[in-house]
């Protein structure tokens, strides 16, 4: 869509440029009855028209009524309790009906937040993503299969979600691990490897084939977001590229990744959010999606201090694997009970099957959760 708008702008500008050439250079020499002042007025009018076209948003304006409606649906709050009517005996022996309405505590969903900028993906769409790294068949489905087979599998998952929830369009995504935690320290002792740009370019080309979006995922290890995000800025400036950050591999204690579960504080998440917001503002982009993976309490600290902005849509993604009952409980504890903005849920083709009687949860089962997950990731 963005490319189509740019193409339209190009041809319109070219037309008016030729028009200006005719009016300013050719017309005065060939049309003796057209005054210079009249020609100059036409030029000014044409320039104003060009400026109007360039300032016209290439995305539809935010429908606040639809946004509010969809956010309420996503919250999936329980219906209000029914009034309780009981008969109370009076001193004279008669009975009087008294009606009381039970008070239920608020769920926290939908989260109060500023309206997003125009062009927001959420909550108008559900994102269904394939996760992984092109160098490894063990890190996720994105790198496990040849491109055509992988995209075909992703399209099949997209179709499932369209079928189970036809009211919510689905945006396919490729969630690429662009900074990978390492067992060895490396030359700088940071225990992480940045993927070369040519690999990210491959993922962008794949996403284009399915009209999808791309997430750059970062496992900082002993590095930090301040050091890693600038390396990918040229990609994050693109309207179709978003960000994922993984607290599991944020090793603030200095221990080697994989030996303990790492953590991000709200200050880390706010840095990433502000960084994205500045790019959105400076480059007139639609809002970015920021995905944070989580499956323990300490992976995200001070969640109430996470700042919400019109330029960034924050997804807390339940990242744990295992038996379906444990996954649902993890979601309830660390996503439902600690609301941030949007909810996500991760499914593992292999790890979710490792335990006895375990299986992958279905889209229909995930839509029984409160709130509904709007970002779905497959590994």
Mean pLDDT across residues: 89
Number of domains: 2
If classified by CATH, what would the architecture of the largest domain be?
A: Alpha-Beta Barrel
Query: What name is given to the CATH topology of the largest domain?
Result: TIM Barrel
Low-confidence stretches: 1-14, 19-36, 52-57
Q: Strands of the biggest beta sheet: in what spatial order?
A: 3-4-6-7-9-11-12-13
Q: Helix-strand pattern, N to C?
A: HHHEEEHHEEHEHHEEHEEEHEHE
The gyration radius over C-alpha positions equals 26 Å
Strand content: 15-25%
The overall strand count is 13
N- to C-terminal distance: 28 Å
Helix content: 25-40%
Number of helices: 11
The gross shape turns out to be globular
State the CATH class of the largest domain. Alpha Beta
Structural class: alpha/beta
Strand count, sense and closure of the main sheet?
8 strands, parallel, barrel
Care to describe what's here?
With 379 residues, this protein is α/β, with parallel strands linked by helices. The chain has 2 domains: 2-51; 126-378, TIM Barrel. The protein is 36% helix and 19% strand. It is built from 11 helices and 13 strands. It has helices spanning 2-30, 36-54, 64-75, 141-144, 147-164, 197-209, 225-228, 233-236, 266-283, 324-336, 363-366, and strands at residues 84-89, 95-100, 126-132, 170-181, 192-194, 213-218, 241-245, 264-265, 288-294, 300-301, 312-318, 342-347, 375-378. The strands form 3 sheets. The chain has an 8-stranded parallel beta barrel with strand order 3-4-6-7-9-11-12-13, surrounded by 4 helices. Strand 12 (342-347), helix 11 (363-366) and strand 13 (375-378) form a beta-alpha-beta unit. The longest helix has 29 residues, at 2-30. It is globular, with a radius of gyration of 26 Å. The two termini are 28 Å apart. Mean pLDDT is 89; it is low at 1-14, 19-36 and 52-57.
């Amino acid at each position: 869509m963005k490319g189509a708008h740019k193409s339209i702008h190009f041809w319109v500008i070219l037309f008016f440029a030729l028009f200006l050439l005719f009016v300013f250079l050719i017309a005065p020499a060939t049309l003796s009855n057209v005054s210079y002042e009249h020609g100059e007025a036409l030029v000014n009018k044409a320039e104003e028209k060009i400026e109007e076209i360039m300032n016209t948003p290439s995305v539809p304006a935010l429908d606040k009524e639809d946004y509010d409606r969809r956010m309420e649906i996503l919250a999936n709050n329980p219906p209000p309790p029914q009034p309780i009517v009981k008969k109370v005996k009076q001193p004279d022996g008669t009975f009087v009906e008294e009606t009381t309405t039970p008070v239920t505590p608020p769920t926290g969903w939908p989260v109060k937040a500023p309206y997003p900028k125009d062009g927001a993906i959420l909550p108008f769409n559900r994102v269904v993503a394939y996760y992984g790294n092109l160098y490894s068949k063990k890190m996720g489905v994105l790198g496990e299969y040849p491109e055509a087979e992988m995209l075909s599998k992703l399209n099949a998952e997209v179709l499932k979600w369209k079928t189970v929830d036809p009211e919510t369009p689905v945006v396919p995504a490729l969630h690429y691990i662009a900074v990978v935690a390492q067992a060895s320290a490396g030359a700088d002792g940071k225990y992480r490897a940045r993927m070369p740009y040519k690999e990210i370019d491959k993922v962008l080309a794949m996403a284009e084939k399915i009209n999808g979006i791309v997430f750059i995922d970062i496992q900082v290890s002993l590095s930090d977001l301040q050091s890693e995000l600038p390396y990918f800025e040229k990609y994050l400036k693109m309207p179709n590229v978003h960000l994922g950050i993984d607290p599991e591999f944020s090793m603030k204690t200095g221990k080697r990744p994989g030996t303990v579960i790492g953590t991000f504080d709200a200050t880390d998440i706010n840095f990433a959010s502000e960084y994205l917001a500045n790019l959105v503002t400076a480059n007139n982009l639609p809002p970015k999606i920021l995905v944070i993976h989580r499956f323990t309490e300490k992976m995200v600290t001070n969640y109430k201090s996470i700042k919400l902005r019109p330029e960034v849509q924050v997804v807390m993604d339940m990242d744990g694997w295992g038996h379906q009952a444990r996954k649902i409980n993890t979601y309830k504890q660390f996503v439902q009970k600690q609301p941030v903005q949007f909810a996500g849920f991760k499914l593992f083709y292999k790890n979710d099957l490792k335990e006895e009687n375990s299986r992958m949860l279905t889209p229909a089962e995930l839509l029984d959760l409160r709130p509904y997950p709007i970002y779905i990731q497959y590994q």
